[in-house]
Amino acid sequence: QVQLVESGGGLVQPGGSLTLSCRASGFNLQYDNIGWFRQAPGQKRDSLSCIHRDGSTYYQDSVEGRFTISRDNAKNTVYLHMNNLNADDTGVYYCATVCWGTTGYWGQGTQVTVSS
Q1: Element spanning 74, H or E
Q2: How many CB atoms lie within 10 A of CB 23?
Q3: Per residue in 76-92, pLDDT tens?
Q4: 20 strand-pairing partners
């Protein structure tokens, strides 16, 4: 069955870096759009970045220049490389088979906490 599993979250100090992984099973993600989303405490879930099936990418303004999305077709995994993290980046990060909205398949999420 289709499944997405996120990993790589954790506690990081302001200015630090993390790389999140989204491993897919049950389908070949290179033929799909894969988005990364963040839900901060008390906030709605926001789209942060997306990699389309053609390899083109999208970034929300707040992460442009700090986050990079990439895809490893051999590992059937999409990554979100996050640099220069700040407290506003704290939240649960999800990957999904959509770039926006709530449809598609979703992972269970991974917590990222930016704190000193």
Answers
A1: none
A2: 18
A3: 999 999 999 999 999 99
A4: 80
CB 22 within 8 A of CB 32: no
Q: Label residue 102 by pLDDT band (50, 70, 90).
A: confident
Q: Residue 58: CB partners within 8 Å, gap ≥ 6?
A: 47, 49, 50, 52, 99
8-state DSSP, 8:
-
Residue 101 pLDDT: 86
C-beta separation of 114 from 12 below 8 A:
yes
Specify the residue for token string 């999800």: 94
Residue 91: closest CA among 35, 43, 20, 59: 43
Backbone φ and ψ of 75, nearest 5°? -95, 0
For 92-101, write each residue's pLDDT tens digit.
Answer: 999 999 999 8
Average pLDDT of 52-65? Answer: 96
Contact indicator for 6, 64 with CB cutoff of 8 Å = no
CA–CA gap between residue 57 and residue 19 (Å, rounded) = 17
